[in-house]
Specification:
six-stranded parallel β-sheet; 3 domains; 13% strand; Rossmann fold; binds uridine-5'-diphosphate-xylopyranose; alpha/beta; single chain; 17 helices; globular
Length: 446
């Protein structure tokens, strides 16, 4: 919404949320306090806020005044009832729809921005049509393809924008209205108009394909570790085939983030609900390999440290699910830590952007052990060098650039010998680290 406001000064954009703290932070005069860390976002908010970008908790007023309403609430995987662990939880979407229905006094275009199961638009339409004040609602699906850490650039230079809607005259007009907003900065050829179900499904499928690439290369990384092949060399060799392409082939400790797992689970659930077991199993395998990769990394640490990590200090460099974000949702680090804590390891975490509170919250949520136990076994450090005294091992969980330029000689002198480094992101210089004396292991190489 900030980017839309930034690029379209004539459009008034109001972002509303029931969470007062969050809105307060979005309105904070100190731009360092915005609730999301995202490169470039601060400048965009600084330009547009107060001009045509507003943040408010007055939801009803904003609905009343709007021509278009984007629903962008979260749709987490259900943790209860039917479809638990797989289906998307649509309660927040439904609450939004009911709120819009109650308040709207004139025609509105309602846009699904949240990632949703196929056919949700129909459910939203039913709620709006049956509980509303008999105004006309056009429902569009406009999935978001931005990736965190590069969000602003992804929006400003989007590969494509997808707009799904009905092919009735009203639906076509609504699609055009939304398209004209994006046309302020994107060429028209990149704006795809589809039916609403294609649009909804495409979002899930795009994420499933991306995640599948990572699981594919990660499965090969396990094979590389058993042979003398090097996963980067394999990735490069196959990526040069223009049909395969080079992107998203970085072997890692496993993908994280709020989207990939959730969307695949959702796809699996939808396939199952239509009786397509083979399709469901096929996509489920992408998640299974991802879980395997995280477990494998933890197992490698354990077996390399002579099959016991009890009481041994292991330093985690990175907790975020990838660099340049403070987002930790589904981060591989959480699961690797959990596995090592089960072995009574003592973990110290350093991440340049993630707060201590967040790290503990992520662990506590797993319910593997008590909160006290998590705090006893895991500590959070604010300095990458202070944390390594007497450590047996360092594990790189997030590919933050700063890890590459740390003073590795100094780190080596502080650690116990032999000093192990487990690089789950393949970002460190193996010649340099081996030269210093480290026992350096990285994913995808023997
Ligand atoms: C993803 C999609 O890229 C985006 O289009 C969609 O809108 C939301 O989901 P995001 O979750 O922000 O975006 O991050 P992304 O860059 O896709 O990375 C996801 C995870 O995969 C991260 O944990 C990342 O470290 C990992 N990854 C990515 C790899 O392990 N290897 C790769 O080659 C690429």
């Amino acid at each position: 919404m900030s980017v839309i406001a930034f690029k379209c000064p004539d459009i008034r954009v109001t972002v509303v949320d029931i969470n007062q703290e969050r809105i307060k932070a979005w309105n904070d005069t100190d731009l360092e306090n915005l609730p999301i860390y995202e490169p470039g976002l601060k400048d965009i908010v600084a330009t547009a806020r107060g001009r045509n970008l507003f943040f408010s908790t007055d939801i009803d007023q904003a609905i009343d005044q709007a021509d278009m309403i984007f629903i962008s609430v979260n749709t987490p995987t259900k943790t209860y009832g039917k479809g638990k662990g797989q289906a998307a939880d649509l309660k927040y979407i439904e609450l939004c729809a009911r709120n819009i229905a109650r308040v709207a006094k004139d025609d509105k275009i309602v846009i699904e921005k949240s990632t949703l199961p196929v056919r949700t638009a129909q459910a939203i339409k039913n709620i709006l049509d049956n509980t509303g004040n008999h105004v006309n609602f056009e429902i569009l699906s406009n999935p978001e393809f931005l990736a965190e850490g590069t969000a602003i650039n992804d929006l400003l230079n989007a590969d494509r924008v997808l707009i799904g809607g009905d092919s009735t005259p009203g639906g076509e007009a609504a699609k055009q209205a939304l398209s004209s907003i994006y046309e302020n900065w994107l060429p028209k050829e990149r704006i795809l108009l589809t039916n609403v179900w294609s649009s909804e499904l495409s979002k899930l499928v795009a994420n499933a394909f991306l995640a599948q690439r990572i699981s594919s290369i990660n499965s090969i990384s396990a094979l590389c570790e058993k042979t003398d092949a090097n996963v980067d060399e394999v990735a490069k060799a196959i990526g040069l085939d223009s049909r395969i392409g080079p992107k998203f082939l970085n072997a890692s400790v496993g993908f994280g983030g709020s989207c990939f797992q959730k969307d695949i689970l959702n796809l699996v659930y939808i396939a199952k609900s239509y009786g397509l077991e083979e399709v469901a199993n096929y996509w489920d395998q992408v998640i299974k390999i991802n879980d395997y990769q995280k477990q494998r990394f933890a197992d490698t640490i354990l077996s390399t440290l002579y099959n016991t990590v009890a009481g041994k200090k292991i330093v985690f460099y990175g907790w975020a699910f990838k660099k340049d974000t403070n987002d930790t949702r589904e981060s591989a680090a959480i699961y690797v830590a959990d596995a090592l804590l089960e072995e009574q390891a003592e973990i110290v975490v350093y991440d340049p952007k993630v707060s201590e509170q967040q790290i503990y919250a992520d662990l506590d949520r797993l319910n593997t052990r008590s909160e006290q136990e998590n705090r006893r076994l895991l500590r959070v450090s604010k300095d990458p060098l202070d944390s390594v005294d007497d450590a047996h091992a360092i594990a790189v969980l997030t590919e933050w650039d700063e890890f590459k330029t740390l003073d590795w000689e100094k780190i080596y002198t502080k650690m116990l010998k032999p000093s192990f480094v487990f690089d789950g992101r393949r970002i460190l210089d193996s010649n340099k680290l081996n030269g210093i004396g480290f026992k350096y292991y990285r994913i995808g190489e023997s």
